[in-house]
Amino acid sequence: MTFAVPACSKTSAHHSAADSTTQQVAATSSQNPVKLAKTKFAANAGLATGATYQWIYKPFKAGTFTKGTKGRTAAFIKAGLAGTFAYNRLKAALADAKGDPLLSKAVAPLTGSVDGLKALADKIKSGKASDADFNQFNNVMNSIKSAGDSQGATVTDKVPSSSQLGTH
Question: Is 79 contained in some domain?
Fold first, then answer.
């Protein structure tokens, strides 16, 4: 068995298949790889999905956001805070994902969806969110879970405390 050792010259014109693979990976991952990228991704995404389920999707399914329902205003405030929190944690999760080339590729198509959550959080805070808006929040969370699961970064809902949400 023989091994080829590439020359260390700056002017070398020889490029191997390994060189092109390295260049492709570098194009999809961060210049500063994140240590424990999958773990950090799963933790941040888990907080986002937990907040969304607890304070957005569950009250929505229970009808808490319907006009005339007792506790509606408080539910909207908590949902707005949860939406902002989820957006922030998902942005962190996407940044963490850049530290792992395969995870980065898996979540790349979701960047636009995550960016769209900022506007949805504002709609929820103002009480102008529709059923479609609540379902969109849930769909993005499910997409994040699927992308993580596909690359071995299992996302488990973790409900953040009220102080993490900023309700204190």
Answer: yes
69 within 8 A of 63, measured Cβ to Cβ: yes
Domain carrying residue 124 = 44-155
Per-residue pLDDT at 31 exceeds 60: no
163, part of any domain: no
Whether residue 144 lies inside any domain: the answer is yes
- Tokens 């999760």, located at residue: 93
Selection from 49, 54, 27 nearest residue 146 by Cα: 49
Q: What is the mean pLDDT of residues 32-52?
A: 90
pTM greater than 0.70: yes
For 26, the token pair is 């570098």
Domain count, the chain: 1
135 in a structural domain? yes
CA distance 140 to 113: 6
Q: How far apart are CA 89 and CA 137, in angstroms?
A: 14
Q: 53: which 2 tokens?
A: 């389920």
